[in-house]
Specification:
Layout: H1 12-43, H2 53-69, H3 76-103
Helix pairs in contact: 1-3, 2-3
Length: 104
C-alpha cells in the first residue's frame, strides 16, 4: 500500500495510516543506527572511549540545525537526541562490556 502525502489525506484513517507507516520506518532507522553503536563498541579500544561529550554535543547540534531547517518545532530535536544519544551510550557500554568479557 502506498502511503499518501500528508497534504493528500482526506480522512483521519489516512492520517493514522501514514503516521503508523512512518513509525515503522523510524524504528527501522533506529535499528540501523544502533548497529553503528554495536560497531563502535567493537572498534573502540577502551571503555572510557564510549562516552564522548564533544561528539554528543556535535550530534545534538547537527540534529538541531537539520530540524530547524526542516521547520520542526524548536527544542524537539534537542530533547529527542538527548534521549537517543544517552540511550545509545548506555547500549554501547553494555555491548563494549560484553565484547571485552569475551576477550578475557
Amino acid at each position: 500500500m502506498n502511503m499518501l502525502l500528508a497534504s493528500e489525506c482526506q480522512t483521519m484513517a489516512e492520517v493514522r495510516a501514514g503516521v503508523d507507516a512512518l513509525d515503522l520506518e523510524l524504528v527501522a532507522l533506529l535499528s540501523r543506527r544502533f548497529g553503528y553503536m554495536d560497531a563502535a563498541a567493537r572498534i573502540k579500544a577502551g571503555r572510557n572511549e564510549v562516552r564522548d561529550e564533544a561528539r554528543k554535543a556535535q550530534v545534538i547540534a547537527n540534529a538541531s540545525a537539520a530540524a530547524a531547517a526542516a521547520g520542526l518545532p524548536a527544542g524537539l530535536a534537542e530533547a529527542l537526541w538527548e534521549l537517543l544519544v544517552e540511550t545509545s551510550i548506555a547500549h554501547e557500554l553494555v555491548q563494549w562490556d560484553a565484547l571485552h568479557a569475551q576477550r578475557v
